[in-house]
């Protein structure tokens, strides 16, 4: 097994190569505005560091979000296209699950929250690092205070809103290394992974024009 | 000719997911998936809706283009992609796909300019572009007069709209007339049964002191809307066909007049018209008439090649390969306001050779 994992759902542009047992190379850069620019050079670097060619990869793992859309699509489009050319499966993993896995918490419950911008967080509750209890959701921190009260929390969304998440801690962003390790574990256990479909959780912003604006001065 | 470059082009600057394949100046495939129906109820292209649709459509559209062309991806000589200008989020989907595709295949990547691609597509219809070429590009996003002596390296803006694009004016007037979106085809249809001289709508920027090659459609749009509103206020029926014909005439009169004048002033004996509005039947007819009178040869590609598509990007990519232009680096990014003067986008990391070493290496050889 040789998995190439990537995630662009958070400000981190993160890539890792996993041989089924260990992460053999990885790269993480935090720059929310340059996902498109940074991802492919990072893939190239990770492959070079591991001394393997892309066509040796047996599967692609991609973070499906939730995440702000423009960046999120960079990873998904890249993963889909690699899958097309290489003819290997493309597995989707919820980005929050990757963070939960990296948090390495044996006994929860705890919360993972990422920054959804617009003063909202993407979040879910976990029983432990491998077990998600709720569907990923997008909310204002104040509106979920009751549901997360007293729980430890990880992720940039938790660190950003200490009023709601007073015991927030690292990891801040997802790492492809965690995503790959989680996927490798599930695949080895014979589990099916999700399809690589984006979790937007919001409808596109679009106003239906009521009518055209009258131009004749009144 | 088998030694001409075989190039796949990807276009996602607006609401069409286009993947085209050319061999030199020969069109092999032109696969387009459009999200236009999803935008219709909003009366205009919604960027996020377009971006989501591009992500869904990309892989199937690439597959369709390869089947249509009957070629194998392994035989491609390069991958070209629209790097700008256009909707930022939409462009980024195409650029991400093109980079991953080129990288995985071990082929060079060419980030190209959307406007230069609109000009270059005519090579697929009428053979090599004459040099220099005067081009009138008219669509929902652009209205410009461009002069190019080499489509891969030199595109000079002669004039452009100072307010609305021509296609935007069609959309807005169609909305005032309750004809739906997009406005171009429906206005064209109604105009065919109307009288283009029924109403004398203004011709923007055509005074003796106005800039010779710039356009303005905002005043026209307002004049047409006011005329319609006055009719409605008076309780009279709006003569939709005559309004459509007279409005359309005002637009195409100015476009063709200025384009022909630019050709004469610059001593250019060819005029190329591209962009979605080039599909307009009256624009084609009037341009033909005026070019003939002025001894100018008119080149307008078939309507499907005038609207946004991947073949036009492939056509410019093939020209980049043929003329030995350097490939773009792997950090190529989308630039929503890419200037028309940059037909080719090398990427930021240019000069760092390792990316090119990777791109030249064929993983399957
Ligand atoms: Zn266009």
Secondary structure elements and pairings:
The complex is a heterodimer of chains A (218) and B (365).
Chain A: E1 3-7, E2 12-18, E3 23-30, H1 35-50, E4 59-63, H2 69-86, E5 90-93, H3 95-103, E6 110-115, E7 121-128, E8 131-132, E9 137-139, H4 145-148, E10 153-154, H5 156-160, E11 168-169, H6 176-188
Parallel strand pairs in A: 1-4, 4-5, 6-10, 10-11
Antiparallel strand pairs in A: 1-2, 2-3, 6-7, 7-8, 7-9
Helix pairs in contact in A: 1-2, 3-6
Chain B: E1 6-11, E2 16-23, E3 26-34, H1 36-40, H2 47-69, E4 78-84, H3 88-105, E5 109-113, H4 114-120, H5 123-126, E6 133-138, E7 143-150, E8 154-160, H6 166-176, H7 183-191, H8 218-233, H9 240-266, E9 270-274, H10 281-294, E10 297-299, H11 303-306, H12 310-322, E11 344-345, H13 354-360
Parallel strand pairs in B: 1-4, 4-5, 6-9, 9-10
Antiparallel strand pairs in B: 1-2, 2-3, 5-11, 6-7, 7-8
Helix pairs in contact in B: 2-3, 4-12, 6-7, 6-8, 6-9, 7-9, 8-9, 9-10
Bound molecules: zinc ion (ZN).
Zinc ion binds at residues 114, 118, 139, 141, 275, 308 of chain B.
Task: Quickly give the CATH architecture of the largest domain in chain A.
Answer: 2-Layer Sandwich
Gross morphology of chain A is globular
Encode the helix/strand succession of chain A as letters. EEEHEHEHEEEEHEHEH
Individual helix count of chain B: 13
CATH homologous group name of the largest domain in chain A:
ATPase, nucleotide binding domain
Roughly how many Å apart are the termini of chain B?
23 Å
Short description:
By secondary structure, chain A is an alpha/beta fold. Chain A has helices spanning 35-50, 69-86, 95-103, 145-148, 156-160, 176-188; strands at residues 3-7, 12-18, 23-30, 59-63, 90-93, 110-115, 121-128, 131-132, 137-139, 153-154, 168-169.
Notes on the protein architecture:
The complex is a heterodimer of chains A (about 220) and B (about 375). Chain A is of the alpha/beta class and about 220 residues long. Chain A has six helices and eleven strands. Chain A has two domains: about 110 residues, ATPase, nucleotide binding domain (Nucleotidyltransferase, domain 5, 2-Layer Sandwich), CATH 3.30.420; about 70 residues, ATPase, nucleotide binding domain (Nucleotidyltransferase, domain 5), CATH 3.30.420. In chain A, strands 6, 7, 8, 9, 10 and 11 form a six-stranded mixed beta sheet that branches. In chain A, helix 1 crosses helix 2 and helix 3 packs across helix 6. The mean pLDDT of chain A is about 95. Chain B folds into two domains: about 140 residues, ATPase, nucleotide binding domain (Nucleotidyltransferase, domain 5, 2-Layer Sandwich), CATH 3.30.420; about 170 residues, Nucleotidyltransferase, domain 5. In chain B, the strands form two sheets. In chain B, strands 3-2-1-4-5-11 form a six-stranded mixed beta sheet, with helices on both faces. A five-stranded mixed beta sheet of chain B has the order 8-7-6-9-10, sandwiched between helices. The radius of gyration of chain B is 21 Å and the shape is globular. Chain B starts with 5 loop residues before the first strand and ends in a 5-residue tail after the last helix. The C terminus of chain B is likely disordered. At the A-B interface, helix 1 and helix 2 of A face helix 2, helix 3, helix 6 and helix 8 of B. The structure holds zinc ion. Zinc ion binds next to helix 4 of chain B. Chain A: One of its GO terms (biological process) is tRNA threonylcarbamoyladenosine modification. Chain A: It comes from Streptomyces curacoi. Chain A: This is tRNA threonylcarbamoyladenosine biosynthesis protein TsaB. Chain A: Pfam families: TsaD (PF00814). Chain B: It holds the Pfam family TsaD.
């Amino acid at each position: 097994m040789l998995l190439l994992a990537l995630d662009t759902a958070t400000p981190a542009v993160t890539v890792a190569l996993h041989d089924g047992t260990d992460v053999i190379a990885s790269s993480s850069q935090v720059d929310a505005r340059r996902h498109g620019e940074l991802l492919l050079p990072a893939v190239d670097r990770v492959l070079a560091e591991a001394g393997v060619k892309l066509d040796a990869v047996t599967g692609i793992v991609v973070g499906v979000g939730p995440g702000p859309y423009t960046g999120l699509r960079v990873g998904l489009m890249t993963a889909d296209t690699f899958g097309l050319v290489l003819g290997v499966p493309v597995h989707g993993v919820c980005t929050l699950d990757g963070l939960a896995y990296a948090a390495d918490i044996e006994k929860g419950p705890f919360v993972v929250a990422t920054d959804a911008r617009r003063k909202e967080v993407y979040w879910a509750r976990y029983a432990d690092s491998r077990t998600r209890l709720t569907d990923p959701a997008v909310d204002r921190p104040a509106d979920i205070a009751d549901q997360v009260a007293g729980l430890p929390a990880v992720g940039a969304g938790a660190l950003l809103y200490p009023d709601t998440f007073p015991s927030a801690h690292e990891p801040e962003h997802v790492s492809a290394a965690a995503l790959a390790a989680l996927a490798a574990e599930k695949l080895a256990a014979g589990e099916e992974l999700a399809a690589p479909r984006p979790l937007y959780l919001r409808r596109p912003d679009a106003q239906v024009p009521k009518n055209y604006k009258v131009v004749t001065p009144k | 000719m088998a030694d001409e470059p075989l190039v796949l082009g990807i276009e996602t600057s607006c609401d069409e997911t286009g993947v085209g394949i050319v061999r030199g100046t020969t069109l092999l495939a032109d696969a387009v998936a459009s999200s236009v129906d999803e935008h219709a109820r909003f009366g205009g292209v919604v960027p996020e809706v377009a971006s989501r649709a591009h992500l869904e459509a990309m892989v199937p559209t690439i597959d369709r283009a390869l089947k249509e062309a009957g070629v194998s991806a392994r035989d491609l000589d390069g991958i070209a992609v629209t790097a700008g200008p256009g909707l930022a989020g939409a462009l980024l989907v195409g650029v991400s796909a093109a980079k991953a595709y080129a990288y995985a295949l071990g082929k060079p990547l060419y980030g190209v300019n959307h406007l230069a691609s609109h000009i270059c597509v005519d090579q697929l219809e009428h053979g090599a572009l004459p040099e220099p070429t005067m081009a009138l590009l008219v669509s929902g996003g652009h209205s410009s007069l461009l002069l190019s002596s080499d489509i891969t390296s030199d595109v000079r803006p002669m004039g452009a709209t100072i307010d609305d694009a021509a296609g935007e004016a069609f959309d807005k007037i169609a909305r005032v007339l309750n004809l739906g979106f997009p406005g171009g085809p429906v206005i064209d249809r109604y105009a065919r049964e109307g009288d283009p001289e029924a109403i004398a709508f203004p011709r923007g920027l055509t005074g003796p002191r106005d800039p010779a090659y710039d356009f303005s459609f905002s005043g026209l749009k307002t004049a047409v809307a006011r005329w319609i509103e006055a009719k409605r206020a008076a309780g009279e029926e709006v003569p939709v066909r005559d309004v459509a014909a007279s409005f359309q005439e005002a637009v195409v009169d100015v476009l063709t007049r200025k384009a022909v004048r630019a050709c004469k002033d610059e001593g250019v004996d060819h005029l190329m018209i591209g962009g979605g509005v080039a599909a307009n039947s009256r624009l084609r007819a009037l341009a033909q008439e005026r070019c003939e009178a002025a001894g100018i040869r008119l080149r307008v590609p078939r309507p499907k090649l005038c609207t946004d598509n991947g073949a036009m990007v492939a056509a410019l990519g093939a020209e980049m390969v043929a003329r030995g232009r350097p490939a773009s680096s792997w950090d190529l990014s989308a630039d929503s306001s890419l200037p028309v003067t940059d037909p080719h986008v090398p990427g930021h990391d240019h000069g760092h050779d390792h990316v090119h070493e990777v791109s030249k290496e064929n993983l399957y050889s």
